[in-house]
Structure formats: structure tokens, C-alpha cells
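REVIEWER CHECKLIST
Item 1: Sequence provided? yes
Item 2: Single chain? yes
Item 3: Sequence as submitted:
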Amino acid sequence: MRKISCLFTFFAVLVACSAMASATIIGTVSIVNSIPGGVSVYASRTDFLAPANPPGTPPGTGSFTVSCFTTPCNDASTNLTWGVGTPLNPGQLGTVKDIDITMAPVLSVPPFAPNPGATGVDAFMIFAGTTIDMRLITLGPSSTTTNCHGIATNTNCSPTITIPAGQPAAGTTFVSPYVLTALIDPNTGLPAVGVRLHVGGTATDGGPNVSSWFGAFSTQISSCGVAGTGCTTGQVQDIINSVGGHIDSSYAASFSATFSAVPEPQTTALVLGGLLVLLGRVGMRRYSRGR
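Item 4: Structure as written out by the authors:
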């Protein structure tokens, strides 16, 4: 009976540790902009809608919806779990913070290396009804081609941006973290532009465990304002660099969160405590026999 009691104590500790370790964020999630909604891209700000928060106003947040091809979500597009295995579901709402030029001191803006010790933007993305907090730390990487005029179909660029007058930090020049791809729209045969913004950071759900996450916002631009002409990467670069210029679009995004199973201090202490209890019982048993 003593042996059974010892084994029960040990396995109870393992079960408790397993429950603690499972309280973390892991899996993938896909989102789409809310209706109405989308994104407006300026030189100095990516303004997620709704509501609108253009340059010159304080950055705000936009809204999105968790997307999925099945109900409940159990396919590769969304299987993100948090807490003790609680899944996100399609239609669940969330918010995403606008990305502003004032964030540059704490974020990496490739092609430069991430700033050492960057803490990022807390609560960059949150999901309604959960304690998920996705912190933004990195933007990019950018393409090594920084002039988007005249690039070949199916090639990439990241436009050089000089913030125009009327926006915060006017005159600042940098390479955009956005990657533009020159495309041909199969429906119209006209030029179009694929757009991707790679992002990454850390995520927590209120527990002690921290996950890393990465992913990308994406969209396709088929018109730059003149009907029947399509849109090119060079036009996008020129619009963003012009006074008052911005690109409006819908968006979709997909993110993947991973967790490195490194026991947190509480778990380590609990395991050691369980082992000490087990060893103590074995030791007392041997002592009793020796008397």
C-alpha cells in the first residue's frame, strides 16, 4: 500500500505539472477585416479600420474577425488554443493596433537588424472573450529591391519611403517593411500588386508561459484609382510618397504561435517538491525497517 501511495503522489504531481504547462498559446489563426473595415496605408501609419485614425490623430485600433473554413474551427486555418486548451472560433472578434512611425524606436524596421532589447507594442492584437495578448516586436523582413518602378512580373520590392509634408516625422526616409509583388490579375489581364506585411512577437494568455508568434497581413490591389488601368508597384510607391496619398484595401492575415516547453519556476518547484515527498516516504520506510 505504501508503494501505491508513493506512486500516486508522484503521478499526481506529473498531472498537475502537465495541466500548468498546457496553459499556453499554440497553433494557427486566420483573420479577416471586419465589415465594414479594412486598412489605409500611409507613409507614416498603417491605419486598421474601423474606425479611421489617419496621420495627425492619435493611433488607435481596428477590428477583425477570426476566419475559418469549418465549424467548429478544426482545420489548418484556425486551430489556435489558449488557456487549458480553449479554442478560438470563427466569427470571434478582435482588435489590432495601428502601426505608426513613432513605434520605430522599439521595433525592427528591416533591412536593419532588430533593435537590441526591443520590447515592442503590447496588446497589438487581442481577441474578445480571451486573455490572449499578442505583443508586436518585429516588422518585415523587407525586400532587398527598394525601387518598385519597372520591376518584372512575379518579382518583389519594398518601396523607399520619404514621409511627405503633413504627416508626423515628415522628411524621414526609410525602407518600407511592406513587400510588394508585381502581378497580372487573371480576371482582367491588367497589372495588380500583391502586398504582404510580415510581423512577429510574443504572446501570453495571462499565465506564466510565453509563446512566440509570426505571420503576415496580405491583400491584392487591382486599382490605383483610375478605372481600367490596373495598378503597378511603382504607382503604389508614388502614391504612398505623395502629400495626402494612401492606399485603401481589405486584408486577410494568418499567424502561427509556438511554445518552447521550458518549465517555469512554479513547475520546477512542484516537480522537485513531489520528488522530495516521494523520496521522503521511501526513506521513512527504510528507516522503519532498520529499527
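Item 5: Key structural point noted by reviewer: Residues 1-22, 262-289 have pLDDT under 50 and may be disordered.
Item 6: Recommendation: ____
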